[in-house]
Amino acid sequence: MTQAKIVEVGPRDGLQNEAGVTLEQRIQLVDALSETGLKEIEAGSFVSPRWVPQMADADRLFARIQRKAGVRYSALTPNLKGLESALAAGVDGVAVFGAASESFSQRNINCSVAESLERFQPVMAAARDADVPVRGYVSCVLGCPYEGEIPVARVAEVAQTLYQMGCYEISLGDTIGVGTPAKARAMVMAVAERVPISALALHFHDTYGQALANLLACLELGVTTFDSAVAGLGGCPYAAGASGNLATEDLVYMLEGMGVETGVNLDALVRAGEQICHGLNKSPTSRVAQAWLAK
Ligand code: HMG
Ligand code: MG
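# magnesium ion complex -> structure
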């Protein structure tokens, strides 16, 4: 592999769990990330503001960000209501999000896995009519906060259904960061029997410090698309104990060190992470960012 695609999820996954984050801070983060060379930025969610107040006013966010040519700005849309708002806001792409765990699905989007897949059908159809690409997430691919181990066959089944429904890419979420490299590989191999590996993305949280190791193990299988969040921000409000995503700085540093091009300017990325962390009164968890700032 000589090139990787990074999907920056910091403004969405990174901030959806941050109490007190302001719309201004969210806009500033998207704009700062736009200047780093990242080509895909998940900027927000069109979900219920009662469920996730941090992601409220996504329409105002999309109206105010400085869109950079060549960058795709996307958002989560759990249902038709979310999709309609997202289209009105002029998103470049949307994502539906399902799970391989029944309990997580209930807590996260208030319906069963089967109901969620049915709910996504009209979303897919309306997005297709609007010519907006749809990404599909599968959560809990390496474990569930409520059910523990999840069979890889279940992950593969949900991934295949989303792919057959028309999602151009399936992002495999280790929502609570419990995976280890051999398990991550086995899971990706099982999914790759049903979905082309070129259509898979890895979305690993770093709760147990395994995200980069897991990613490397799967990169060796041929996956080239990776989700990460600047400064290692992140966590899901419906996954107890879930902490940050793999830090984009750590991912960029590793890939570039392996000779894989990311197109991302690490210094600009570290500064973007520093700015949002300062605003949130925290420090970046990214080891690379810490080392870079200490230089
Ligand atoms: P519900 O309560 O079952 O929905 O929620 P409902 O259709 O019965 O509607 C209830 C109320 O919500 C109504 O308002 C609707 O209008 C409103 P009311 O009449 O009571 O005032 N509503 C909406 N408002 C704005 N936008 C919408 C929308 N839909 C309904 N799209 C729902 C179902 C899915 C809406 C809810 O459960 C929800 O918003 N959940 C949020 C889930 C979420 O954002 N989770 C975090 C992201 S997923 C994640 O982090 C994992 C991931 O990173 C991968 C990984 O790590 O594994 C992707
Ligand atoms: Mg996530």
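# post-check
The chain has twelve helices and eight strands.
The radius of gyration is 17 Å.
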